[in-house]
Batch of 4 targets.
Target 1
Amino acid sequence: GKLMPFHKKNSLKEKKILILGPAIICMDTFRYQMQSEALYNFFSDIFEVLSELSVSSVTIRPHPGEDEPRNQFGYTGNDILQSMINKVEANKKLFDIKFSNSLFQNIERDILEHDIAIGHKTGALFEVLIFGRDFIYFDNMITPYYGTKDWSLFNEGTIKKLETKEELRNYLVNYKPPDLELLREKLLGNILTQKNSNGTTDPFTLL
């Protein structure tokens, strides 16, 4: 693996967007999963704003664990996500919607085929930055994921947190690429300066 140059865009019009779906398996309680309101709003809010911005397509990449059956009927987390997305009003989905199979589709390919990534708290942030794309952190959820309160790179504000549809809209309508080189250097730290045995920077080996 190697660091990719940044793919900078000043507008999202007609761009391809990758959404890294919230990990249902990490949600705190069974009751929270069953209510599903926050999960529905996550997609509804993003879709509404992206439709206003005239993006060309959106690909949903679920957490790999969402492919596991959750009950005796064989329903999976992917079924839950697709059900939520299908319930979003058609006038908020004015673009092509695709689904990526996280178990079989390489995340590098998904990232490189899109112009920008939007998601909840996720370790895939590092892959997004390594492969040269900006990551939009959108968190309108009420209940935090277990163990994520100590994710300092999110909580200290290194990654800007957008908590409402209005914040997301204002940020994307006025979107300007951040200093991604500085962001990547801050998040990956000394990894960028280390070398593997062949003398080339290999962040995946060193992470």
Note: DSSP finds nine helices and six strands in the chain.
Target 2
Amino acid sequence: DVKINIIENLDQVVMTEHQLDELITIATDSIGVVNCFTFKQKKSKAYNRLKKGKVDIVEFAKLSDVHFRKWVIKRFREAGKKLDEQALKFFIDFSMYSDRNQQISLYHMENEIKKIASMEQEMISAEDLRKVMIMPLQMNLFSLTDHLASGDLKSCYEKLNDLMAKGHSEYELMPLLTKSYHNMLLGKVLSQKGYSNDVIKDVLGFK
């Protein structure tokens, strides 16, 4: 059996030179163990030290806009579905795959396409997509909320403008944002009162 160790966001961990040297030794000399390290930023001390230490580095990058478009067309064709130009543009824009600040992968897109392909009609319209593509909106509302909470008004307005440009109105977004802030405040209050995470999730309706 092979054991896999995963350390996420290693660049966010403060480490001494000695600790980094030990990490490189572990990464290169371990037998029967696969050590995986992830980074948020390539321009970090830890990333550069591992790279200089001859540690194998695999970079997972998003497809370019052109290649993502071709990939989407191919996947829908393989699923026996067709998108007109308007629907294709809607899918690409609404998925927000090309937004580098979003953790949306081809795996997420594959599942999204499978869900859409389960519809009976062969030709999929933009209106059909609007009815079923709800996850990206939820993810971007979380991002918008984070920007507000951190005081990053510039990113907040950019995200809000992006969502409205994609067809979401302020009448749709405000109730969702209000509910999100209500849950955040309620979760904080319950936590301060000593309630467990399981109880808080149950109160907020999270599974």
Note: DSSP finds ten helices and four strands in the chain.
Target 3
Amino acid sequence: YNLGLCSSHKKHREDAFQYFNKALEVIDPDKSGIELETEIKFQLGKLHFENNDNFQAFEILNELAGGEETTQTQTQIKRMLGVVLCRLKQYKKAALLLQQSLSANKYDAVAMSYLGIVYLRQKQGEEIARSLCEQGCELLPDDIQLKLHLGIAEMACGNYDIAYPILKRCLLYNKTREAAAEEMAVYYLKINNKKRAEYWKRKSLQYVQ
């Protein structure tokens, strides 16, 4: 378990997966306590979450999610579950969990930003969504994923001149490049430049590969 934590902190995720899985194999909950087993599963779920292994993350985190508890760990689990469900396009369930996370921590920038995206996808109000994404960026200004969310929200609100430089910045990072290219294609369609729109549509497909 400790080796798994050390590897996780150093971003050596493959090693961390191996150590945590090995710990689960050898642990005896009757001797070590159910709390340690739960903590190991939490660390595994967190690793899958950070690795965008959405189905694996959901399976583990959903098992650990516990009712109306508001402990720090439970708040983290609900936030991560909400994000995973948003990635999997299960927006109704995602909204509930992200709202619960924000109720426990009103300064949770990630939950705030993803809730904004959920509202956009469910057509529950572009301006509310944009405001949530903007607040998330203010709380975590260096998070490029939250920057992307703001760019998407600005596009949805018709603020194309504001969205454009945000999306251009997101093109510089691997984790946001594909989605930013898709939004650039939308941007050029909105300003009636079909040639550039087609270019960015092709680029987004290249980034998938």
Note: DSSP finds 13 helices and no strands in the chain.
Target 4
Amino acid sequence: TVTLGFSAGFVFDILMVLAQKFLDEPKPVLAFIESTIAQEIKTGMIGITIAKHTTDLKLAHYLYSGCLMAGAGRCIMAILNPDYIPFYTKLYSDDLHASAEFLCEQTRFGATSDFYSSLICRSFPIFQQIQDPIYFNRQPYVLRHRGAKDFHRLAAFICLAKNLSKHVLTIDDPKDPRIKEKWLRTEIQDIGLSPDTLISIMKNVGS
């Protein structure tokens, strides 16, 4: 896990170098990359906590680095297109479901950040195994329908970690509707973690 985490960090170092080398005004993109790194480290730490609460995740050692790699494609999009940063800022604030975010990116830019994230994974042998879970981390049900159980589980847990990272809520009642509205959204309602488990995860994250 440590080696995978360092390798993911190295990917972001490369992206920052690319922004500095090829952009006339790299500062906004560099700030976006730094913000993405901070957000995905937070998400990855939640991912580690999730992994401690499940025994049904064979690729658990990829959960932290997978959360980081899932954000790398956004940095590529920001480098390639100056319109991406304001687009993503609004997309994030609109709080759409993950699959809807995917479709919005695809419609607006003709490609998604998940595509670029998976492309980066394909380029690094250490991450080649998880290129499909990274591509489908906002649509994990696609992998379930394909019968790729281990890949589906990893993609779904990355999606869950992102939901929990974005919505850090103090919840005590397992019947609180916000659990499904913000954490267990449509894409991952079959993930197999109870509301009580999610509440426990978030309490551990906050402690």
Note: The mean pLDDT is 93.
